[in-house]
Amino acid sequence: MRETFDAFISYRRNTGSTLANRIYDFFVSRRLSVFLDTSEMKAGKFSEQIVNNIIGAGNFILVLSKGALDNCFDEDDWVRKEIKTALGYNVNIVLAIDDDFSFPQDLPDDIKEIRNFEAVFFNNNNFKERILHLEKLLILSPVLNEYLSENDYGKKATSLTGEYMTYYEDYENGKLVIRRAPAKLKQFFSRVTGDTVFDGTRKWKLSGRVYNGSRIVGIYSADDKFDEGIGTFFLEIKNFNHLEGYWSGYDSANRRLTTGSYVFNRLFTSYSIYDVSKKDIPSICALADAALGKDYVTPQTVADLIDDGVKSFCIVMKNSYTDELLGFCVYKIISKEEAVDICKGKVLPSLYAEDQLGYLATIVVSEKYRGNGLATVLIDKVTDIFAKMNITHIISTAWKHIGKINLQGVLTRCGYKKVTEIPDYWYEDSIKKGYSCPQCGNPCHCSCVIFEKF
Predict the structure, then answer these.
(1) Which domain range does residue 92 map to?
(2) What are the angstrom distances between the C-alpha of 75 and each of 8, 10, 104, 331?
(3) CA pair distance 293, 358, nearest whole angstrom
(4) Are 314 and 301 in contact (CB under 8 A)?
(5) Side-chain-side CA neighbours of residue 424 (13 Å)
(6) Could you tell me which of 224, 292, 235 has the C-alpha nearest to residue 430?
(7) Number of neighbours of residue 24 by Cβ within 10 angstroms
(8) In this structure, is residue 145 part of a structural domain?
(9) One domain for residues 157 and 260
């Protein structure tokens, strides 16, 4: 099985090794798993290890030291290959820029996009401040975070019963990809059963047995009798929060036998959902400022939602033990005309199918709780609320920056389909209201991607 890392550090050895090693030492001291070629290389082909470890890492830290990109017009240059791999596999990219670095006037087309990613600037006097900022830009697995107590997170559990987020290797158009899918397991003595859902539509049944208290061996099969997909899985029980191993089986969509790594991370489920109240206003605004840009959601915005309660609503999710705000979702009942306005006049024939539509306007989950399926819970909750109102057509907006759509994964898993994209969607609004986009600053140049679900 491919080893996975929290971060992969890419650097130009002759000028960037000092900063790369300092970053590596800091994150190792924080108990993160970091790949640096001088420390983590194992026996085997160098090229295969580099590519596999970039794909398997959650983050790609590119150290830009003096002349780091000067050789990148050489197609065999390793820094260029590493950047190209990270871009191609949609790894979270963060730039660590040294004092004496400057971008070349031009870069090859396949890596020129690297200029646009979040950057942290280092010099000899501000390392501690800068490295802490760099850490905040990383997307880390919830297994490593310490904000969940042992009781909250199941470390003292004696059963595998629970909800998980799974990560598995698959192939799409001949290209290796890492997919995510929610799963539920139930354990009765040595028997383990469950199900998992891919793309919000394809459901798979899981059935296995625990051997020697440390391993699970079982089979999976499609819930749809017309789907021929079937296979086996083998998992090691690292602890009651984390299982990892392999799956292998027949891919009916691609008509081939496939195998790949398979990881289960237990989800945080100690939450409660409420209608928003006035006491939630400061917490909502703080969460929105961090995720969407300062003043995109104002106290008056939330107060208006509370006062409305007829067409516009908001639900909040809180930690059941600490009452900490974990996330919130703003949703609305809109007319066909309002839906056309949201789509900036784009003609979507489906908008004329219903007199009223549901609108998922804003979905935010606290950064430290992301990866636990909480956004999925919020979206499913609102979908159920709309269903009780006899509203079956729902649209949602998501921002897109440098090719990445912020809610694409969770919306897809909840059964939403992408229908159109609108460039510079918030440009005029950001100037008028003065809020600062976390990706672009002010003005905002993000595109808006419209999703819908029936």
Answers:
(1) 7-140
(2) 21, 17, 16, 49
(3) 25
(4) no
(5) 5
(6) 292
(7) 23
(8) no
(9) yes
